[in-house]
Amino acid sequence: MSKPLPSPRGAGTSCGQCPQVGSSCGHGRSGAMVLLAGHILSSCFLLTQAVQNITIDVSLDPEFPLVGQDVTFVPKGLMIDVISCLWTKGEKDESFPIFLYHPPPKAAFYPKAAYDGRQTPSFDCSMHIRNVTFDDIGLYEIFKTRKIANEVGEAFLLVTEEKTPELRKPRSLTSGAIAGLAFGCIVGAILLGVMLISLLTMLPSTSDESDPTVVTIMPSTARSMGSNRPSHARMENQLILSSHNVRPG
């Protein structure tokens, strides 16, 4: 009987017996495919997470702070299942992180590149900046990482040197309006003085004309009454005489 021919592969070189650690033994291409598939799946997962971001509003208190004042960025949204809050400054292409904050119960604060010691986080992920300057002007953005859906919001900080014209003076009269009011008051005072003078000059003449009338009327009335009395007496005497002359026939 003939002996079987030896295998062309050397001893220990079969796929089931890989002599070196990490050798694929013919499975290198399939391993690379597995890694590529995993990378694609992770990219899809990150893209899905980005689509699920919820946009929230961010308010400023005060809305237009003056130089040297404090300002607070207050993000809206929910604080349920919030893992961390990241505040950044600048546009998306030139954005610099300020700090990363983990709210209670495991509160933690991690300052970043744009942190200068004036920024302070709060339990609701708001950010407080002390003593603002013109260098603080810019776009600020917050990224709230949550277990369900992340939240993203932004606000633009505008620092002013003095109060805006609407807030500086409530409502002030112009110089023309003040001059008009003064002229009207002067004219009114002059007219009132003329009326008082004319009224005072008319009062004595009226009293002088009324007194003689009363004096002249009273004597004439008395004389007329006195002259009427004899006439009535004569009429009574005539009636008595006429009654005596008339006798019954």
In short:
The protein has three helices and ten strands. The chain has 249 residues and is α+β, with helices and mostly antiparallel strands. It has a six-stranded mixed sheet with strand order 1-10-9-4-5-6, with no helix packed on it. The protein has a four-stranded antiparallel sheet with strand order 2-3-8-7, with no helix packed on it.
Description:
With 249 residues, this protein is α+β, with helices and mostly antiparallel strands. Among the domains are: 114 residues, Immunoglobulins (Immunoglobulin-like), CATH 2.60.40.10; 50 residues. The protein is 40% helix and 21% strand. The protein has three helices and ten strands. Strands 1-10-9-4-5-6 form a six-stranded mixed β-sheet, with no helix packed on it. Strand 9 and strand 10 form a beta hairpin. The longest helix is centred in the last third of the chain and has 71 residues. It is elongated. The N terminus is likely disordered.
How would you describe this structure in keywords?
249 residues; alpha+beta; Immunoglobulin-like; 6-stranded mixed beta sheet; 4-stranded antiparallel beta sheet; 3 helices; 40% helix; elongated; disordered N terminus; membrane; Ig-like_fold; transmembrane; transmembrane helix
Major sheet characteristics:
6 strands, mixed
Question: Using DSSP, what is the number of strands?
Answer: 10
The CATH class designation of one domain is Mainly Beta
Strand content: 15-25%
Coarse shape: elongated
Shape-level CATH architecture of one domain: Sandwich
Mean pLDDT: 75
Order of helices and strands: HEEEEEEEEEEHH
**Number of helices, where a helix is a run of at least 4 consecutive DSSP H or I residues:** 3
Unreliable stretches (pLDDT < 50, length at least 5) are 1-27, 45-50, 212-217
- Alpha-carbon distance between the termini? 220 Å
Helical proportion, percent range: 25-40%
* Order of strands across the main sheet: 1-10-9-4-5-6
Secondary structure category? alpha+beta
Q: What is the third-level CATH name, the topology of one domain?
A: Immunoglobulin-like
Q: Rounded to an integer, what's the Rg over CA atoms?
A: 57 Å
Annotated CATH homologous superfamily of one domain: Immunoglobulins
